[in-house]
Recover the amino acids of this structure.
């Protein structure tokens, strides 16, 4: 079962103004959380997909240098 209600922006705004102050603050917090979580997840996915990657040679060179540095440290 699905219930669909067509309400325009002004009607929503009038309903919001009828809420007590605490409920408006709660709604505001919820909306901000929803907006920021969608922006972060979208941006994070884009950043990961566009991030530079290392070739096998680059990774091997890094690991060899790291191994050499770890062995040369005074303990």
């Amino acid at each position: 079962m699905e219930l669909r209600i067509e309400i325009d922006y002004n009607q929503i705004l009038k309903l919001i103004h009828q809420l007590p102050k605490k409920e408006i603050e709660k709604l505001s917090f919820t909306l901000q959380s929803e907006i920021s979580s969608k922006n972060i997840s979208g941006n994070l996915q884009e950043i990961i997909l566009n991030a530079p990657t290392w070739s096998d040679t680059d990774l091997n060179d890094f690991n060899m240098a790291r191994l050499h540095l770890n062995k040369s440290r005074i303990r």
